[in-house]
Amino acid sequence: MKLFNAKIIANHPINARYWHMILDASMLDEHVAPGQFFHLQCGDAQQNPLRRPLSVFHYHQASATLEFLYLVKGIGTQQMTQRRPGDYMNLIGPLGRGFTLPEQGALLLIARGVGVATLHALAREARAQNKAVHVLLSARTANDLLTATALAEIGANVYTVTDQEGTSNLEQVRPRLEQLIHDEKIGALYSCGSRRLSKLAQDLAEKYHLKGELATEAHMACGIGDCYACACTIRSQGQLKTARVCSDGPVFPIEQVVIQ
Length: 260
Known about the structure:
Helices cover 20% and strands 36% of the residues.
């Protein structure tokens, strides 16, 4: 974990709701794992002191760049859209527990909306290790199917469903995923960005005795485990326990997550 200032290389919209930011990360001297996040100071520290947690979209070690894909939703992310190349962002990170890859079998990634940012980094790591990756992307509209092209370019098999087309309901998605599990020798399931899809992934992992992990989201104040603002409930050793999303997660074993 490191506190540092990073120069903005690029910051631009990719559609009406999502933006893509690239930072110079040459000062980072530690590994950044898929599923980890950084705590960003979005605007002026005096006007908006709270940070925003953003999962790593891509960390390119060779070019020393760090990328984030973010949904413009509140004051913090609106302030982020005003930052220009050459400006500096103050970050803390990398933080949290990231994903682990299975020793055998293909990966099945299930993402909705900005949840694809977290799983995109995992897909890249898996493809770098020559593992087969299948990604189901769910979104409101076709315009919100983020990174489908980029995932296909790295060799992932991408399947898309949208509310607009009427293909994203669980009654249609579940048999599609079950067919992939049967046909593609899936070894592990991963999900992020939707409670209903995460619950479906959890059910499928239990039914087919698959390993898996879920990336969870929470409002965070400190991001380092001190304030307990992001406390959640997990199931461990047959008991319900309190965990901190920022330090115990945000990635948890799929069977531990209690989905409300």
